[in-house]
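Predict the 3D structure for this chain.
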Amino acid sequence: MLKVGLVGARGHTGRELVAILSRRSDMVLAFASSRAMAGEPVKKLAPEAPEGLLFEALGPQDVATRGADAVILALPNGEAAPYVAAIEAAAPQTIIVDLSADYRFDDAWIYGLPELCGRERLKGATRISNPGCYATAGQLCMHPVRDLLAGAAHLFGVSGYSGAGTTPSRKNDLAALRDNLMPYALTGHLHEREMSRHLGHEVRFSPHVAAFFRGITLTAQLSFAEPVTLAAFKSRYEAAYGGEPLIALSDSIPEIRDGQEIPGAVVGGWSIAEDGRHAVVVCALDNLLKGAAVQAVQNLALASGLDELAGIVN
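Done. Predicted structure below.
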């Protein structure tokens, strides 16, 4: 039984992690840290939580000395380092899965996107950086054809406001979002740099947020060095994802609702321009699941030698 600690448990992703862990027989939620909800039952946020488990206000040293086999850090960007330092000092064998962007550019950490970066690399890993939600969708669109690309790929993404977290901001303000589509981070978005780094190809990304709660749709505009047929284009995705249980392929254009509340992603809507040098592919996924919690549990299970999909698929 793998004892798992969760830091940043009251967020939207934390709630999904509690639910997934509760469905596994080989993992148990040992503690859930949240200063805002300290002393309250975890069941208040997630009915699936173990009986009697209370939220606790745990600092880095508290987390490091609680005896967990693994710790999932579901914290905002920039807040993971004190917890990582404390764990490395007190219990370096502990597996850390970090959901923030803090270690996605650190070669000492394994970048955990199993379908693309390989499951073998995750076996026995103790420092795992979880990809971003948009970055997962974008890389699923680009990875099968990255060797054919010429020039920057242009990605247009729209997410639900849960992606802005629980701290109040204009990006999760329903009054501001009503009847609206809100562009943000017009240049240099973190996920733009993340995708460019891990794909080894230049990406230009335009993120937007809308007034639905969860889900992402991402449209990738791709240019090729040589003409490509529609059949050859589509066959790349069939070869890459045909055996992947969490990646569905669709001739129809994936929409937000196709990806909502499913554990994986839908990729499809393949289209090729007449000259064969320009193509479009679309991905839809749930930013809280395959974009965060599902991927974290996949990574943790693979690192621990456990069933990758237990608690994720029926």
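The chain has ten helices and 14 strands.
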